[in-house]
Design a protein that fits this description.
This protein has two domains: 86 residues, Ribosomal Protein L15, Chain: K, domain 2; 178 residues, Four Helix Bundle (Hemerythrin (Met), subunit A), CATH 1.20.120. 40% of the residues lie in helices and 15% in strands. The chain contains nine helices and ten strands. The strands form three sheets. The protein has a four-stranded mixed β-sheet, sandwiched between helices. Helix 2 packs across helix 3, helix 5 crosses helix 9 and helix 7 runs antiparallel to helix 8. The N and C termini lie far apart (51 Å).
Length: 322
């Protein structure tokens, strides 16, 4: 076997909680395609080939929520490990960022929210209460008494009528007489128009951002409340809270834009910063799961379960075996 002659791998240390930027204080997302990402002595770098050679750009992974990797990207093991240690999610997306194929994130996340999510998603009564809170969030100004006697099916129908009304309102506002939603997954409908293209790009970016927050909080994207049966069910649940406020108006405003895909991503990134949506996502997740106050967490938290309660797992319990 030939000896390894490449550069010496950079050492990666387990981060302390105080050194990790809180998810609600981070930047939203960065979309990259057709580049190579590697780890240098100065941090994570994206290298782009240009006519006269190559150009490199630093990626602020320590303060970034999600790095969206599009077609033509490659990433080294060291860069991926550094991103995971810094708590920056890498989301792998398809052409025009319409589809999300997967993601990875830091393993340093607490399990308290995940346990609560598992309980809510499997208890019919708690799940119905969480779904009711989500529907109320979509109707500003309403109270719990509004849907007190409504079934989940009735609330789902009301939500469908609301979404149809929002699309029709935006179409009238921007003077679009004939318009229909096209996700780009049905070729018989023809190529998507500028509104559909912008909406697909903006929604895909929104899914990536919400998915990154979900993973950052140690939650499972697949344990949904309203949605079920998909590995992104909970991500879709939370993302739906913001579409009529963020992505739908943005897409219709770009109906005459020559490059609606890139314009949607640029504008969405700026709007997320102005709206401070990341802290809102964290608060809304706690609201949906019925968590009043988010407790502080430690990357070293580990306990052993027992019927009498949980105990620390960092020392021997041999004396209790007799």
């Amino acid at each position: 076997m030939m000896p390894f002659s490449g550069p010496t791998p950079l050492p990666l240390q387990k981060p302390r909680a105080l050194l990790l930027t809180r998810v609600d204080d981070r930047l939203s997302f960065l979309y990259l395609d057709r580049c190579a990402i590697h780890q240098s002595d100065n941090g994570t770098v994206a290298v782009i080939e240009v006519e006269d050679g190559s150009r490199s750009t630093q990626i602020p992974v320590a303060t970034l929520t999600s790095l969206m990797l599009g077609p033509g990207t490659s990433i080294t093991q060291q860069a991926a490990a550094h991103m995971a240690a810094a708590g920056c999610a890498a989301t792998f997306v398809g052409g025009s960022a319409v589809r999300s194929y997967g993601a990875f994130l830091s393993p340093y996340a607490p399990a308290d929210r995940l346990q609560r999510q598992a309980l809510v998603s499997t208890d019919p009564d708690l799940r119905a209460e969480a779904a009711r809170r989500m529907y109320l969030k979509r109707f500003p100004g309403t109270t719990s008494a509004t849907f007190a006697d409504a079934s989940i099916e009735q609330m789902r129908g009301i939500e469908g009528l609301r979404m149809r009304a929002v699309y029709e309102q935006q179409a009238r506002k921007h003077r679009l007489r004939a318009w229909r939603r096209n996700t780009g997954t049905q070729p018989e409908l023809g190529p998507p128009d500028s509104v559909n293209m912008a909406l697909n790009a903006a929604n895909s970016a929104l899914y990536g951002i919400v998915n990154s927050v979900v993973l950052s909080l140690g939650l499972s994207p697949g344990l949904g409340i309203i949605h079920s049966g998909n590995r992104q069910s909970f991500t879709l649940d939370i993302a739906d809270l913001y579409k009529t406020r963020v992505t739908v108006p943005l897409a219709f405003s770009l109906k005459d834009h020559g490059d609606p895909f890139n314009a949607a991503l640029r504008t969405l990134r700026e709007e997320l910063r102005l709206l401070r949506l990341l802290p809102q996502i964290v608060n809304d997740i706690d609201m949906v799961l019925g968590i009043d106050v988010a407790d502080d967490w430690s990357v070293d938290a580990l306990e052993l379960w027992g019927p009498a309660g949980e105990v620390e797992a960092t020392w021997s319990h041999a004396e209790w075996s007799l």
